[in-house]
Amino acid sequence: MIFVISIVFMLLGLAVSSRLKSKFAEYSKVGLANGMTGAEIARKMLNDNGIYDVRIVQVEGQLSDHYDPLNKTVNLSYDVYNGNSAASAAVAAHECGHAVQHNIAYGPLKMRSALVPIVNVATNAMNFFYMFGFMFMAYIFSRNTAMAQTVLLALIVANAIIAGFALITLPVEYDASNRALAWMESRGIVNNREHGMAKDALKWAALTYVVAAAGAVANLLYYVSMFLGRRD
């Protein structure tokens, strides 16, 4: 069953990711009326929010854009950094939205950052289990030992951490997009048509996180149901 859940959400994730890439490709062909590049938009948004200690860096890859709170850098892919399209404007402003969150100590972002080390441990534990643990689980489950309950509890804890991280990511991402769209509209960075494109692109980007969160919760519920079933 866990494989079925994983495959279903993997396929959903691939479908949403494919749609996001097609939207980005479509909106990358629409140049902004003001001709600003993603890097210029990022710098202006940071300055407008009184942020002057965050660097804007070009990085390799496609849709590899992210904000790094440790190094205080807005990292933009080549197409976003140099592009002057509705898509590049949306992504650049979104990543600066995270910089604004960091600057004002936005609660969900602080919680998300605090969870990163423990999430890494939980993720590594689950990866190890998926690679080597199933034969061990079959053995101890067949003997109905107390160890089976202990292992299930450990899996529940690991998946609860991963699911919690995925869920707290949602308000972080949606808030960054809302900040980006509101700023671009208020400062006249985009016109009505470009604003609609930027909003649509960010919507599909956010849906990738929604699918990931739903998959994490589904995994957690599966292990909880296994645990409760064995107790009965």
From TrEMBL:
<keyword id="KW-0812">Transmembrane</keyword>
<dbReference type="Pfam" id="PF04298">
    <property type="entry name" value="Zn_peptidase_2"/>
</dbReference>
<dbReference type="InterPro" id="IPR007395">
    <property type="entry name" value="Zn_peptidase_2"/>
</dbReference>
<keyword id="KW-0472">Membrane</keyword>
<feature type="transmembrane region" description="Helical">
    <location>
        <begin position="204"/>
        <end position="224"/>
    </location>
</feature>
<feature type="transmembrane region" description="Helical">
    <location>
        <begin position="118"/>
        <end position="139"/>
    </location>
</feature>
<keyword id="KW-1133">Transmembrane helix</keyword>
<protein>
    <submittedName>
        <fullName>Zinc metallopeptidase</fullName>
    </submittedName>
</protein>
<feature type="transmembrane region" description="Helical">
    <location>
        <begin position="151"/>
        <end position="172"/>
    </location>
</feature>
